[in-house]
Design brief:
It comes from Comamonas serinivorans. By secondary structure, this protein is α+β, with helices and mostly antiparallel strands. Helices cover about 45% and strands about 30% of the residues. It has 2 domains: about 1-40; about 40-95, HU Protein, Chain A, CATH 4.10.520. It has a 3-stranded antiparallel sheet. Strands 3-4 form a two-stranded antiparallel sheet.
Length: about 100
Amino acid sequence: MTRSDLVEALAARFDQLTVRDAEVAVKTILDAMSDALARGHRIEIRGFGSFSVTRRPPRQGRNPATGQAVQIPEKRVPHFKPGKALREAVDSRTDAE
């Protein structure tokens, strides 16, 4: 599902929302989540999962073209951990297929 699919599904589910209103709602939610993660905050959506920022330590890597050793700097990356309800829903759907 893409962002535009999500907007269309939201507009179809709620008759009072136009596609434009649904697009603004999705953009607002995603922007708020991005801003919170950029500030290092944790986002928890009960029944769905949690988003957090994890730290990847610096490490030694290799340039695949030359084989030369390259130092890879430390990074902060987003991490998603699915909630129990989401894990069970996905698992039960794969059993039914």
